[in-house]
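Encode chain A's predicted structure.
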Amino acid sequence: MVTPYRIVLADDHAMFRQGIKNILETVEGLEVVGEASDGLMLLELLRQGTPDLVILDISMPHLRGLEATREIKMISADVKVLILTMHKDKDYVYSALSAGAEGYLLKEDADTELFAAIEKIRDNGCYISPLLSGEFAFDLVQASHKGEMSSLSDPLTTREREILKLIAEGISNKEIADLLFISSRTVENHRANIMRKLNIKQTANLVKYALNKGYILSTK
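Encoded structure for chain A:
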């Protein structure tokens, strides 16, 4: 028996959630295991049990989708996130990917692209809605010509870069927690998320990355 791919839906429109659920449940192997109408409800669901994928909107009450994405990654770096939204502004795409989302799908593309997005993310890929991907790729080319590629290609958030810098300087998780007034568990979650985003398995390679990005200076 195939283990189902467990999905949680988060959108403040109940009818839209139901429509997506109906679509998903037509495919064997996909299972909707929870629904939330706002960001805080979503986080409470995830504390009770983590799914494989969360599909959520950017515009939600109490806790917006981008903030919720960051919190999801704090709860578990293994939970993947697909943003499903009406927002076409490319700044939202950059922000979503920086927050840790693995995909960005426009609602108007959902009827034809939802399964493609899920499969790409399930295979550890990154998915961007076809209506945006051309413009997104153009922006990356333009940025590389202007020497701005590092800011677009670096998937880490400001806090993750801050923590990476401290890790690369040899500071322990507990010391980082004390410096930033956060818990050691939060530091550990950030560290796991950094390594996942960068596809890095060893601390030594984190240090190399930090050096290459100029976060720390070489002592040589």
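The first helix runs from residue 14 to 24.
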